[in-house]
Amino acid sequence: MLSEEQSEEFHVFPETRRRAETIQSRYTATKGKSPEVCLTSLPSLVLCKEVLAIRSVSKRLQFTLIHEDSSSGARQGEISASHGSFSTPVFMPVGTQGCVKTLSPDELREIGIKVILCNTYHLYLRPGCQIIEKMGGLHRFMNWNGVIITDSGGYQIFSISSLQRSEEKGVRFKSHLDGSNHFLTPEEILKIQLALGSDLIMVLDQCTPHPISHTQAEKALDRTLNWARVTRGSWVKDEKRGLFGIVQGSTFKDLRKRCVEELVEIGFDGYALGGLSVGESPTLRREIIEYTTQYLPVLRPRYLMGVGTPEELLDCISLGIDMFDCALPTRIARNGAVFTHRGQIIIKNAAYKQDSGPLDPDCGCYTCKNFSRAYLRHLLWAREILGMRLTTYHNLYFLARLMELSGEAIRDNSFKNFKREFMENYQRKWHAN
Question: Does the annotation mark 325 as catalytic?
Answer without folding.
Answer: yes
